[in-house]
Predict the structure of Chromate efflux transporter.
Amino acid sequence: MVKWKTYLEILLVSTRLGLTSFGGPVAHLGYFQNEYIKKRKWLDEKSYADLIALCQFLPGPASSQVGISIGIIRGGLFGGLLSWIGFTMPSVIALVLFALLLDGIGMESASWIQGLKIVAVAVVAQAVLGMGKKLTPDRTTITIAVLAAIATLLFPTSLGQILIIVIAGLIGYTLFNKGEAVSLPDMEIKINRKQGIIALSLFFIMLFGLPVINRMFPTLFVGLFDTFFRVGSIVFGGGHVVLPLLEREVVPQGLISSESFLAGYGAAQAVPGPLFTFGSYLGAAIAGWKGAVIATVAIFLPSFLLVVGVLPFWNKIRKNTHFQAALTGINAAVVGILLAALYDPVWTSAILQPLDFILGLIAFTLLVYWKVPPWIVVVLTALGGIMISYV
């Protein structure tokens, strides 16, 4: 009975966070800290900071992974699943309904869609600015970021971005490896190493096995699961960085138009919860509600498997200075990849005339300097798109 009360508490608290956590990954971590740490004291501040460090290194949506980790620590594997469901489903439902609405009444060319595309410029620019300040604090890391941006634009493929991240990690390992011992207290982990090994094994089996299955049984749904699982497995830096990877997986293949892609990304800024639920929108736009279910499970499953797989070993990993050095280079490259995405496809698809730039500049100013809630900026910019169409 006590266990079920714990499960219910996890689900209710995470659902409330999923309904109210606007503002992106950094804001989500602030909401988590207030609810889980300060209010409910499920973790101490140091353990919470350690979880953030772990989830920022792993590919996938960092805020979702932190929530999953807290759910696991509070209620085991099922607690982690409930934490993910509560935090993710409100956003999934809203974006799937948006996708079905677009498809049902043919609003793809509506003037307010241009406003959503423009607000995506402001949001990604805000992300580049915020991440750049934190992850590229000196000339060396800035240089890594710029080189990563150049390489991303010159080699715009998923494989190219993986290589960029790997090379950046090697550069970070070489340049920032100070070899100093780190003394940290152990964090209590309530899942064992056997469970971790099973989860990591499943992750790698699916990562390398799904493309083979897709070639053997080339159906739409198998292809969708393969695509979204692969993207969820290799995205470093959170929701915004998923944009260029997903765009190159679904737009050139004709699964969705560039206009619908950016419209959905703009709409994703208006809802609370993780930006990875943008994948739910794409799945719904491509293949209806079945596609939404497949895309949602596939894009988040790598995060769950990686958290379960790595968490039991985290106490040892986090004390490794080589790991910290490589992470410095990887984080800088993430900023560069996002900077490249700001230009293509976001800027090139949305800013077509001076009035578009003006509207984007206003949206950016409201977000960054006036601290207006993102959903309000999205609504105002969509209205601005309508006004532009009458000029």
In short: The chain is about 80% helix and 0% strand. The chain has one domain: 2-389.
